[in-house]
Amino acid sequence: MKQMMMVMGCMMASGAVFAAPQVIHQNLQPGGFYVARVAPDSTVKLGKDSIVVGPKGEIVVGFDRNAALKQVLTVCGGQNCKETVLNLKPRTYVTQNVTKVPQGTVTPDPVQEKRVAEDNVATKAARDKAEAGARWRDGFTQDWILPITAPTSGVFGSRRTYNGTERSWHRGHDLAAKTGTPIKAPADGIVRLARDTFMSGNLVMLDHGGAVTSVYAHMSEMDVKVGDEVKAGDVIGKVGTTGRSSGPHLHWGMYWKNIPIDPILWVRK
Ligand SMILES: [Zn+2]
């Protein structure tokens, strides 16, 4: 046994044995993600972009709405590198027309626009903070639960018109439920933002590590504050219809770095 371990040790040191990433969970499509474990001292790249490796070798990457269908992950230990090709399945997007939202949220006046700009700065700062501390949380490795159990009223990636005017595509998944329905954290995280915003209404952002963040918009009530640590299942707020919203629902968004990804793909069917 001892001899075998020594042989193994030599092989590891010379790099003759170099394991492929072990998948923890994945959903390979535009808007999807890939979570795996590699040797903790590896360096990892997706295409040319460096990927943060967690203390236990956890890695996560997200794919944007229009991601190329062939993605190459390169894992290196010392001088030895291994490429893993991730083939994404193609995806199409629908158009959704949303009516009866407050007209000011479609064509904001200069004062409202200033507020939107301030909200965007605060949101980006919160997301940057999550990215800076990407190594220190591993909520992204967990099995995710739904924040509320409710019918879908809007899907990720759809082109959107509001009161007949085309606006940016939908960066999230909408679940329609009564005002006051408790919203649960779908995975462990820390609160990076809890802010009354013009477009998203009462908005909470959770940081799950690996530069993965999730947002909960249009809440009637926020039950957490910046810096709070939450566990999966903890109530973070209540469903509402604040901001650019036509009725009570939860807008659930997710980001990897600053790339919007599709939250519903994280929930195991
Ligand atoms: Zn939405």
Question: What does this molecule look like?
Answer:
- This protein has 269 residues and is mainly β.
- The protein has 2 domains: 2-87, Immunoglobulin-like; 95-266, Glucose Permease (Domain IIA) (Distorted Sandwich), CATH 2.70.70.
- The chain is 13% helix and 38% strand.
- It is built from 2 helices and 21 strands.
- The strands form 5 sheets. Strands 9, 12, 14, 15, 16, 18, 20 and 21 form an 8-stranded antiparallel β-sheet that branches.
- A hairpin with a 2-residue loop joins strand 6 and strand 7 (80-87).
- The longest helix has 23 residues, at 110-132.
- The site of zinc ion has 5 residues, from loops.
- Residues 170-263 form the M23ase beta-sheet core domain.
Short descriptors:
mainly beta; M23 family peptidase; binds zinc ion; Glucose Permease (Domain IIA); 4-stranded antiparallel beta sheet; 2 domains; Dup_hybrid_motif; Immunoglobulin-like; 8-stranded antiparallel beta sheet; metalloendopeptidase activity; disordered N terminus; 269 residues; M23ase_b-sheet_dom; Cell_wall_metabolism_enzyme
